Amino acid sequence: MSLRGFETPVLGGTRSFWRPLIGAAIFVVLQDYLSGQTENWMSFVGLVFVLVVLFFPRGILGAIRRRVAS
User: Fold this and answer.
1) N or C: which end of the chain has fewer CB within 10 A?
2) How many angstroms from the chain centroid is the CA of residue 27?
3) What gap in Å lies between CA 70 and CA 52, rounded to an integer?
4) What is the pLDDT of residues 6-46, one digit of tens each?
């Protein structure tokens, strides 16, 4: 739980005002869904966080914006 302030900008991106807010929404929806499915939801959220850091360095919205622009 202590990384929540760090996870949301990383998930959404940091280059605009709205990206961290979208990252927070992604995090809350993911947490709510996974906590209803399994008791180990924090492990899955951590895995998603690591995958986003590795494969989407500008966040999920940065990757989407890059694909739309090209």
Assistant:
1) C
2) 6
3) 20
4) 666 776 666 777 778 887 888 888 889 999 999 998 898 88
* Separation CA 12–CA 21 (nearest Å): 7
Return phi, psi of residue 35, to 5°. -70, -25
pLDDT for 37: 92
Q: Which of 2, 3, 7, 47 is nearest to 25 (CA)?
A: 7
Q: Are 17 and 6 in contact (CB under 8 A)?
A: no
Q: At CA 2, angle to CA 11 and CA 31, rounded to 5?
A: 50
Produce one character per residue of 16-38: b if its CB has 16 or more CB atoms within 10 Å, e if not. eeebbebbbebbeebbeebeeee
Residue 3 has pLDDT above 70, yes or no: no
